[in-house]
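User: quick one, fold this
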Amino acid sequence: MSKSQTYLVALDGSEWSERAAQWAVNLAKSTGAKVHFFSVIPWSGFAPMSAPDLAYRPLEKAEEERHAREDILDAMVEKYKDTGVEFSTGYTWGNPVDEVRKEVKAQKIHMVFAGRRGRSKVLDMLMGSVSNSLAHSVGVPIVLVP
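Assistant:
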């Protein structure tokens, strides 16, 4: 693989996504690929229900963005900064599957890495699985890391 390839790692701050980052970085070291750490902040928790909710929303939104930037994305770059791999980061608001799919196209991603929690098939069917949905929709190879 050439240096022009880029891997996207879908990060949500979980131990599973951190393992996905480790896999992506290890592969990037051996292939010369770049790694793009990407986090999606779901909108669902920020649908205001009342006037008091609206008053607190900007503070919570700013805190969520700070958390995505500093605690998730910047922390991963810091953890792997001495590996020789080139990193970029990004975050957005929305549906994780939709936003990762958009980012794959926008950044011309060659491979996606995502953590998989290892729930049962029944729970995945009832609750949905971001990693499973990504595997069926991103249009590039995807590595699901348990």
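User: anything notable?
Assistant: The two ends are 24 Å apart (CA to CA).
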